[in-house]
Each structure stands twice: as C-alpha cells, then as structure tokens.
Specification:
The structure holds two protein chains of two kinds.
Chain A lengths: L1 H19 L6 H11 L5 H20 L3 H27 L4 H25 L12 H23 L1
Helix pairs in contact in A: 1-2, 1-3, 4-5, 5-6
Chain B lengths: L1 H19 L9 E7 L6 H4 L1 H10 L1 E8 L12 E2 L2 E2 L3 E4 L13 H9 L3 E5 L7 H10 L1 E3 L4 E4 L11 E3 L17 E3 L6 E3 L5 E6 L5 E4 L10 E4 L4 E7 L5 E5 L12 H11 L6 E12 L2 E3 L5 E2 L3 E11 L4 E3 L7 E6 L1 E7 L1 E6 L2 E9 L5 E9 L7 E10 L13 H26 L4 H8 L1
Parallel strand pairs in B: 1-2, 1-5, 5-6, 6-16, 19-27
Antiparallel strand pairs in B: 3-4, 7-11, 8-13, 9-10, 12-15, 13-14, 15-16, 17-18, 17-20, 20-21, 20-25, 22-23, 22-26, 24-25, 26-27
Classes of the chains: A mainly alpha, B alpha+beta.
Chain lengths: 157, 444
C-alpha cells in the first residue's frame, strides 16, 4: 500500500517538476535516485524527502519572480495571523463573536483574494484568463480588498 | 328650638361613642342579629353586654327574632331590591326549619360574595340547614344534631362545660395578650374542616376530646364526628373579596352569665372588619440610573436597575396607621414564571403608610413583566398588587463598541494589521519587477 502511494506521489512530483522546470535542472535525476531507494525508506523519511523536493522545486519556480515571492510572504503572514486569532478565540472564549468573525474573516478573505491574484499572475494560467490583463487583475484585487476591509471594519463595530 | 338642641346633644353623644369604640372604616357597617325566640326567649335581656358592644362598634344595630308566633313575626331579609341591607350579620343557633322565608343558603352565599360578614354560632342541637349548607360551601362541617362534645380527661360529664386555658392559633384574630383561664363552652359543637386555604383555625378541640352521637350508644368510628385535635371549636374564614365569616360551636361566651368581653370583642372586631385590616396606599416603581431615581422615566430596558415600593397601612379602629414591622412581604418579577422573588425591606413611613421597597436589576430578558406583590396572611386582609411593564431589548446603538471590550482588541488589531500589511503589499507589488534577476542584470 505504502509502496503504491509512494509511486503515485513520485509520478506526480516528476510531472510537476517537468511542468515547472523552465531552466535545465537536476530534478529528474534526484527523483530517479529516490525511486531506487523507496523500498528501504520509512514513511516519515519519505514524507520529509518529498517535502524537500516540493520545496526545492517551489524555490526554483519563484526564484526569478519577485512578485510571486511577495504574494507568498503575504499569504504566509495571513495564515499565521488567522491561526493566531483562532487559537486565541478557542482559549479565551468567543465573547465579542462579531469581532472574532470580523478579524478572522478579514484574514481568510484577504487570503482568498490574494490567492486569486496569484493564480491570475502565473504565466501558465495565461490561457485560462484570456482577455484579462495583469493590470486589470490587480485593479480587481484592490477593489475587492477595499470592499472586504470596509465590511470587516463595520462588522467589528 | 328644643328639638335642635336635642339633636346636637345626640350628635355629640354619637361622636363621643365613635371616638371611644373601635369602628370599621367601612361607611356602611349596619349589623343584624338573628336569634330564635324559642331558644332564648329573653335574648335582649340576657345578651345586654354583647348588644352594647355591637351598638358601640357598628352602626344601625338591628336585633330580629325568628321562629316567633304569627302576630309578632318580623320580616328578616338580607337583600332588598337587589341591594345588601347589612354589612354584618350574626346568627344565633335556631331550631327553626328556615331562617326566614326570604333567606336561603344561596342568599347567604350571595351575601358573603357581595362582601358581607357573618358571625355564625352553632350548638350541640346542630345548625340550621341553610346555614349548614353555607358553612359546608366554605369547608366548615359542624357536628349535626345529637352529637355531644366529650372530654373525659377534663370533665367526667356527658358533654364539656368549659375549656381550660385554650391556645388560640391566630394572633391577628385573637391577640397573644388575650389570656383566658377557662373558656365557657357548654352545649358545644365541633367542626371538621376541609383543607381550604381560606380557612383560619382559631381554636382546636383538645387531643383527648371527641364528639359522639348519644343516640348511637356505643362509641365507634361511625358514631363519632371528630376525634382528638382533628376537630375545631372556633374557625375564621376570609374570602378573596376579604369578606369574613367566623364560626363558633357554642353560644356560652355571649350570654351575660359567662360573657368574656376580651375574647368576644376580638372575634367580633375581626369578623366585622375592625381589626386585621390592611390596605395598599400606593405602589410605585422607578428606574434608577447611578442610584438616582428617574421619576418620569419608566421606559425600562433589559439590565436596568429598578426600585419598587409599596405603602401599606393598617386600620387601628379609628384611623389608618402605618403597617410596620413586617419582614415577609415579597415582590415577584414575573413573566410566566417569577424571574425574581425578593424580600421587601422596610424603608420608613410616608403619611399613614409604611413603605417597603427593594432595588433590583431587571433580568437580561425582554418582554411584558409584572411587578407582583401577593401578600396573603391568615387574619389580615389580602393584598394583591400587579403592575405590568414592558421591558425592551437594547437598541442597536446601545451595545458596547468593540474597543470597549478588551478581548476585541486582539481581533480589531488583527484586522487593522491585515489592512496595513495589504497596503504595503500593494505598494511593493507595484514597484516589484517580474524578474528580479533580469532587473539586476539591467542595472549592471
């Protein structure tokens, strides 16, 4: 079972690597090395290994794109802030529930909008968003975010 | 000339009498005494003290005989043209089939429902049928004809003559100060009581007493009316309309031979609305803001502080005086159920009323609430005061703003952080290139 899963994951990773690699990389060679030694590795090692692979491939993807890096930093910040608020609410009780919803939803909503912006600014997705220029996408993003902030401020009271 | 002087003198006498004797606050306290001419032929001669007491404490005393010969017959009626003729009626034991052609047991009940008071006296010859039916309606069951009240531990006679040091059960009717060493109770009857909450037992039969039907011979369960302290000798009744009825099983204490002035006065004063009378003078409720009373604002909202006060006065026989020293008056704040049941504390005297008040916070629940004081104590007039008030919920601008709640600071600052971070993100996004490496190369 584990073997089968590992194989499936490897296939996925290899295709991902093939898709994202624009410059010549050593990704393909590492995956083949991995495939020979999967039988000996425990599940945990497999997980760490695959995460490492994903991370390196991700770093390669964003290496030359400052905007993607910026977007991802912002997303990580939003996730941390959202998790913090949720934990605070669980520990301290949900008394000003509207305030919690406002704060939490502002991070979630901003996350969703930013992910949308990221999807639209990827070169691979250019065919999906035909007729929407990057400037138009960014303008939509600002407009939607402003509405979100307006609603959140009023909801928090 | 002489006539006017005499009338002024009469008026003065009446005024003096009114000042001396305890009287009822009721405008109409006309009294009727009904006796059986066959049972006590010289009633007016043998009951002088009683009649003096009645004529000084009530007005318009009439004494009428029933069961008389045709030529001396009087009309005895309680109502005329639908109006009640008397406030107080005292009925002595009779052997007649009926009180009068005009009075049935329904009339007695109607009289009591209309606010009239009865003092009913029975003896061992039973109670007249209409009167007995009326008493049964109240939950008083006097022993029928033929039963003798016996207590061999007290007297070795066929029926008891007196009761040694009786213990009276109600302070409001017979005050504790009334000490009777030997209560005359000859030819007495006993009564069984229902568990009606409007009955007020005044005197119980002794533990060693029983009433036995002498015609039955042997003493067993079917030939006894009461056994031990399940029997009662004096019973009061007060209906929801505050009309009073007193029943006593013997007429001994009323005749001049064995007249007990103190006890008779106590019983008659209570029955004929002279003692044990309390009334509400005023009921107020206020909204309190920071301990200050807002007189004209009773537009309550949830969690407001409210002050309730009730003024109660007591009739002392001549005027209304404050009803003081009571600690068991309670206020209920009710919407279907009582949300609060609070003790009212004494807070001074205002005019002729003692004021009892309490401050409390209205619960966190909106709707139609009732301030309810339901003060029903045996021996006193019943007080029931209801005031319905609407309690509104908070308006949408009356909730605390988020910055007034410390917990909300976390969420508020998070939301603001997201906004500020978003602003910087937008600025950086605009000024960042698509390809950092190429821009570096270009700059070189």
């Amino acid at each position: 079972m584990a073997k089968k899963d590992a194989k499936v994951r490897q296939v996925k990773e290899s295709t991902l690597a093939a898709q994202t690699a624009q410059s010549p990389t050593t990704a393909t060679t590492t995956t083949t090395d991995n495939s020979t030694s999967t039988t000996q590795l425990s599940f945990f090692n497999e997980l760490v290994n695959s995460l490492q692979i994903s991370y390196t491939s991700y770093l390669k993807t964003v290496k030359n794109d400052q905007r993607l890096k910026l977007i991802d930093c912002f997303l990580v910040f939003l996730v941390i802030l959202g998790v913090f608020q949720f934990i605070f609410c669980v520990l301290m009780g949900n008394f000003p529930f509207n305030a919690f919803l406002g704060g939490f939803i502002s991070t979630v909503g901003q996350f969703v909008l930013t992910v949308s912006l990221r999807l639209q600014s990827l070169d691979e997705n250019a065919t999906l968003f035909k007729g929407i220029s990057p400037e138009r996408a960014f303008g939509d993003y600002i407009f939607a975010s402003l509405i979100l902030h307006f609603v959140v401020l009023h909801f928090i009271n | 000339m002489f006539g006017s002087i005499r009338s002024i003198a009469l008026l003065l006498v009446v005024l003096v009498l009114q000042v001396v004797a305890l009287t009822s606050p009721l405008a109409n306290s006309r009294t009727l005494v009904i006796y059986d001419s066959k049972v006590s032929e010289n009633f007016k001669e043998t009951h002088v003290q009683l009649l003096n007491l009645l004529s000084s404490s009530t007005s318009g005393l009439q004494v009428k005989a029933i069961n008389t010969d045709e030529e001396t017959k009087e009309t005895v009626e309680l109502f005329r043209n639908g109006y009640r003729l008397y406030q107080n009626v005292m009925i002595f034991p009779t052997r007649a089939k009926e009180l009068s052609a005009e009075i049935s047991s329904e009339d007695l009940l109607k009289f009591s429902n209309d606010g009239g008071d009865f003092f009913i006296i029975s003896n061992q010859d039973g109670t007249q049928t209409d009167v007995a039916l009326f008493l049964n309606e109240l939950g008083i069951y006097p022993s029928p004809k033929g039963y003798r009240l016996i207590d061999y531990h007290e007297e070795s006679k066929a029926s008891i003559e007196s009761i040694t040091s009786p213990q009276f059960l109600n302070n409001a009717i017979v005050p504790e100060s009334t000490v009777v060493s030997k209560l005359p109770y000859s030819e007495g009857a006993s009564a069984l009581l229902s568990n009606s909450e409007y009955l007020i037992p005044v005197l119980k039969a002794s533990k060693t007493s029983f009433s036995h039907n002498v015609d039955e011979g042997l003493v067993h369960s079917s030939s006894t009316w009461h056994v031990g302290s399940q029997g009662f000798l004096i019973v009061g009744f007060q209906g929801l309309n505050n009309a009073r009825v007193t029943w006593i099983g013997s007429e001994s204490i009323f005749s001049d031979d064995s007249f007990d002035a103190e006890l008779v006065a106590s019983l008659i004063n209570w029955t004929f609305q002279i003692t044990g009378l309390i009334k509400t003078e005023f009921v107020n409720h206020y909204k309190l803001v920071d301990g200050e009373v807002l007189e004209n604002d009773t537009n309550y909202k949830i969690k407001d502080t409210s002050r309730y006060e009730i003024g109660i006065s007591q009739w002392d026989g001549a005027k209304w005086i404050p009803f003081e020293g009571v600690e068991d008056i309670q206020l209920e704040f009710v919407m279907l159920d009582p949300y609060y049941r609070l003790n009212l504390a004494s807070s001074g005297v205002r005019g002729s009323a003692a004021v009892y008040s309490v401050d409390f916070q209205i619960p966190d629940q909106h709707g139609m609430f009732t301030y309810k004081v339901d003060y029903k104590r045996p021996g006193y007039s019943f007080i029931e005061e209801d005031i319905v008030v609407p309690i509104r919920h908070l308006a949408n601008d009356e909730y605390p703003r988020s910055w007034e709640i410390p917990n909300a600071w976390v969420y508020l600052s998070s939301a603001l952080t997201v906004m500020i971070a978003w602003f910087f993100f937008v600025v950086f996004f605009i000024y960042s290139g698509k390809d950092a490496v190429t821009s570096e190369k270009k700059s070189k």
